[in-house]
């Protein structure tokens, strides 16, 4: 269902290699559940790779860290007009995140999500490369 592709100007991207129907679960966002403070500490100790965005907020206090452990879905790039959405739920007290299709997706389409960051925030310095009609300019 998924493949990785190098897209010029963007880098590694997650693309569909078959039809994905609207509302279909694309994949679970897998990784190690860490507290927000643990995650920030890891990023600082690891050279501050926050520009890679491999951490997915599981809750207000937890992050699903896919930097070292995670599946292909961690390569879903940001878009200001994403074709996928992140849903969160709990199973036996464990936070889970999944990526679901917002519309029908065709083979070769890049799968994108909205990273959920405020583009006006002072820490928002990463240039957006989505090229959508309503691009905000920064992630």
UniProtKB/TrEMBL annotation:
GO cellular component, one term: chromosome
Domain of life: Eukaryota
InterPro entries: SET2_Histone-Lys_MeTrsfase, SET_dom, SET_dom_sf
Pfam families per UniProt: SET
Alphabetical UniProt keywords: Chromosome, Methyltransferase, Nucleus, S-adenosyl-L-methionine, Transferase
Subcellular location: Chromosome; Nucleus
Gene Ontology annotations of biological process type: methylation
Residues annotated as signal peptide: none
Family annotation (SUPFAM superfamilies): SET domain
Protein name in UniProt: SET domain-containing protein
Sample GO molecular function, one term: methyltransferase activity
PROSITE patterns, A to Z: SET
Coiled coil: none
Residues of the SET domain: 1-116
């Amino acid at each position: 269902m998924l493949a990785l592709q190098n897209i010029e100007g963007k880098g590694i991207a997650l693309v569909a290699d078959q039809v994905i129907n609207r509302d279909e679960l694309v994949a679970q966002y897998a990784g190690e559940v860490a507290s927000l403070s643990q995650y920030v500490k890891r990023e600082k100790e690891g050279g501050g790779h926050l520009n890679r965005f491999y951490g997915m907020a599981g809750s207000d206090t937890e992050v699903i860290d896919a930097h070292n452990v995670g599946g292909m879905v961690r390569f879903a790039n940001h878009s200001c007009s994403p074709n996928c959405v992140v849903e969160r739920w709990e199973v036996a007290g464990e936070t889970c995140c999944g990526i679901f299709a917002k519309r029908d997706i065709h083979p070769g389409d890049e799968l994108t999500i909205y990273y959920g960051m405020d583009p006006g925030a002072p820490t928002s310095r990463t240039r957006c490369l989505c090229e959508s009609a309503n691009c905000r300019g920064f992630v």
